[in-house]
Design goal:
Structural class: alpha+beta
Number of strands: 18
Oligomer: single chain
Distance between the termini: 43 Å
Helix content: 25-40%
Largest sheet: 7 strands, mixed
Shape: globular
Radius of gyration: 22 Å
Length: about 450
């Protein structure tokens, strides 16, 4: 089967495909006209104030960035599936909204699946019956796994089985209700050949190759809008003559730290709100609608000017919210390295194929956030033994099929890895916490 992976992100949705006859994964340009890039469907849902229409993806973001009255504009619906919100998923986001959160996410995912299949057919001439569908997700704790996985399974079944139905980026609410009733009547459960945990998928794509007949250790830090996903792996590469493929082995349970890019958004909005004062409510709505672009400008240039209010990057980083985020990330990585300490010490004392160096690889839309990179770089110490470390830059190759960077596409690309090469994580017990929750 050809593997198609949907990376359902908090701020955008991306996809990649690996054909059965191919040894590499290919990103898919599923979002022509997107304000993000041609590979990223905005994770946006918009319902105008009259409640008579519904917009998904590119259309929803376009509508949301205007000043038109709205019943609902949500640019991070994946947050509805977080451990703290999952119990409310079958309720409406706002009292007058005609659909539940679950129904809205199902529609958004169905649009993404449809656009991904269309791109795969157009570019690679694949047939739907040869596709094996996968969808990525954060790492869930043992206590949350069953209830959240069940919701993901239901959403995936609707989205994938609805491929080819009349779902579009803009519909009347009557059309959408008719569509949903039709596709939700089909019972069943999809069987996925692999469970695509986001830090594992990113690692499979981005881990640097060690020299043959050797092993290496890598920490993957995937910075998204809703979570920072962490994975610590040892990679074993047999010699050139071996028939055994490279193995990726988790050294400690993967982590998903809930509260990432969205936390930065909130901190920036609070700073601007304080400066604008009580008369800035209309202007503030404009900022909220375009917060992610404003945030990127701030981190790239070092400052943001909005309605005669200037905010510096250093000022934002010093806020309590970002300081708590940095402290939570630092504590989580320190804990992971301490959990793996015995393995590192054993390998350091090994004369043959030992590990004394740790590669750090950043992925996701926040891969270039320097204040997080500094935090991560400061935490590599193993008791009596000092590991050397370096940050491995992820480059986007020439001829990359989409406008998005390889770091942004990492989860989708790695998520297409053949099942036979997928690392076993069944013995791991993941640890989930908020970035701002003390250890």
């Amino acid at each position: 089967m050809d593997a198609l992976c949907i990376d359902f992100g908090t701020s955008s949705i991306r996809a990649a495909i690996r054909r059965q006859k191919d040894s590499v994964s290919h990103p898919l340009p599923i979002a022509p006209g997107s304000q993000i890039d041609n590979a990223s469907i905005p994770s946006a849902i918009f319902i105008p104030i009259a409640g008579d229409k519904i917009f998904f993806g590119v259309k929803a973001l376009e509508a949301g960035l205007t000043a038109q009255p709205r019943l609902l504009f949500e640019s991070s619906p994946k947050s509805w599936l977080s451990p703290t919100n999952i119990s409310q998923v079958h309720k409406s986001e706002v009292s007058r909204a005609p659909f539940s959160r679950f129904q809205l996410i199902a529609g958004l995912l169905a649009v993404a699946v449809q656009d991904s299949v269309v791109a795969a057919k157009h570019i690679f001439k694949v047939k739907t019956n040869t596709l094996s569908f996968r969808i990525s997700h954060p790492v869930w704790s043992t206590s949350d796994r069953q209830r959240i996985a069940s919701i993901y399974d239901q959403l995936s079944h609707i989205a994938f089985s609805a491929n080819g139905t009349a779902i579009t980026h803009e519909m009347s609410t009557d059309q959408f209700m008719h569509w949903y009733k039709k596709v939700s009547q089909t019972s069943g459960k999809l069987t996925f050949d692999v469970d695509v945990e986001e830090p594992v998928a990113a690692a499979l794509e981005l881990l640097p190759d060690p020299s043959p007949n050797n092993r290496s250790a890598t920490l993957v830090v995937d910075v998204g809008a809703g979570t920072i996903d962490l994975g610590l792996f040892v990679s074993v590469l047999p010699d050139d003559y071996s028939k055994v493929t490279r193995k990726l082995i988790p050294m400690t349970p993967a982590r998903s730290l809930f509260g990432a890019g969205d936390e930065i958004d909130d901190a920036l909005i609070k700073l601007v709100t304080k400066r604008l004062g009580q008369n800035g409510s209309v202007d503030l709505l404009v900022l909220k609608n375009d917060i992610r672009r404003s945030k990127e400008t701030l981190f790239e240039t070092g400052s943001l000017v909005f309605r005669n209010v200037q905010i510096s990057r250093e000022e934002l980083v010093r806020t309590d919210k970002l300081q708590k985020m940095a402290a939570g990330l630092k504590a989580a990585i320190k804990e992971m390295l301490e959990d793996a300490a015995s393995q590192f010490k054993t390998q350091l004392q090994t004369s043959n194929h030992g590990i004394s160096h740790l590669d750090v690889v950043f992925a996701g839309g926040g891969a270039n956030l320097q204040f997080l990179r500094k935090i991560v770089g400061s935490v590599v110490a193993m008791g009596d033994t000092q590991l050397t470390s370096s940050q491995t830059e992820v480059t986007t190759p020439r001829g990359f099929e989409v406008d998005a960077s390889r770091a942004r596409m990492a989860v989708a690309l790695g998520g297409t890895t053949p099942a036979a090469d997928w690392p076993s994580t069944e013995m791991q017990q993941p640890k989930i916490r908020s970035l701002s929750t003390p250890l």
